[in-house]
Design brief:
Helices cover 35% and strands 26% of the residues of chain A. By secondary structure, chain A is an alpha+beta fold. Chain A has a single domain, classed as Heat Shock Protein 90, CATH 3.30.565. In chain A, strand 2 and strand 3 form a beta hairpin. The longest helix of chain A is centred in the middle third of the chain and has 21 residues. In chain A, 37% of the residues are buried. The mean pLDDT of chain A is 93. Chain B is α/β, with parallel strands linked by helices. Chain B has one domain: Udp-n-acetylmuramoylalanyl-d-glutamate--2,6- Diaminopimelate Ligase, Chain: A, domain 1 (3-Layer(aba) Sandwich), CATH 3.40.1390. In chain B, helix 2 links the parallel strand 2 and strand 3. Classes of the chains: A alpha+beta, B alpha/beta. Chains A and B meet through helix 1, helix 2 and helix 5 of A and helix 2 and helix 3 of B.
């Protein structure tokens, strides 16, 4: 990743309850990062976080957008939805706490590890949510100079 | 160990990814909760799960697992196998239970965690 002032942005529209296409946006994000020659350990961290964010949009939101932004210094994955919002963010961040519906649990989701997994893999995480308005999740990764 | 050697030793049935059997397996994991698998999964892992839907293929592809092994002869839908084929994910099947498969893999020297990172 030598020099350059490029910035790449990709936007994916995620539909609520669309388990059949789940993972496609994260898969595309992974491909993009690989093509950019990003270190494989970092690609893995971003991919896991992006997948969890994508699944959260599918399971919990009424639909939203997953965005990838890559600059020479950082990778930012953003998940934004229009609702329903998270009433208690601290509780949602706790490992093992889940509000996933039965349909998601039957597929093996709802372990209450989504947000904790995102936090573990990110360098920084910003989460804002308002019930009735929506949630904005910004996941930051630093690209270290090699 | 290569996936092909594992297939041979445990008489596994290859459901998808026949052309990738020379891939290396270095660790194993057994779990049906996908978020847990996303957290623990790693490249080169053989993953045993009773889940057979589309998202299993997505998780294995994203983490670059060596293969998925479906126990107890559980059937997998054609569209899931087609997706696995498209994503380069090997899906194997066995009549053994997850417990028996994990035990046999462990005996064969498959570790819980990969020692070599790519």
């Amino acid at each position: 990743m030598a020099g350059g002032y490029y910035s790449i942005e990709q936007v994916f529209h995620i539909k609520a309850g669309d388990f059949a296409s789940a993972g496609e946006a994260s898969s595309q994000i992974k491909k993009t990062l690989k093509q950019l020659g990003i270190d494989s350990t970092l690609v893995r961290r971003v991919t896991i976080a992006a997948y969890e964010a994508e699944m959260n949009l599918i399971i919990h939101s009424i639909g939203g957008e997953l965005k990838l932004k890559v600059t020479p210094q950082s990778i930012i994955v953003t998940a934004e939805d229009k609702g329903p919002g998270i009433p208690d963010i601290d509780l949602a961040m706790q490992e093992g706490y889940s509000t996933a519906p039965e349909i998601a649990r039957e597929l093996g989701f709802g372990a209450g590890m989504g947000l904790p997994n995102i936090k573990r893999n990110a360098d920084r995480l910003n989460i804002q949510s308002k019930v009735g308005e929506g949630t904005l999740l910004e996941i930051y990764f630093d690209i270290k100079a090699r | 160990m290569k996936v092909s050697q594992m297939v041979e030793a445990l008489s596994l049935k290859v459901l998808a990814g026949e052309s990738f059997l020379e891939r290396e397996v270095c660790s194993g994991y057994c779990c049906d909760l996908l978020s847990r698998v996303m957290a623990k999964g790693e490249k080169g892992m053989a993953w045993i799960t009773v889940q057979t839907h589309m998202n299993v293929v997505a998780v294995a592809a994203l983490v670059e697992m060596a293969c998925i092994i479906i126990p107890e002869g559980i059937e997998v839908e054609r569209k899931v196998l087609d997706k696995a084929e498209e994503e380069g994910v090997i899906m194997l099947s066995s009549h053994l239970t997850a417990f028996e498969l994990a035990g046999k893999l462990y005996q064969m020297g498959i570790a819980p965690v990969c020692k070599v990172v790519d």
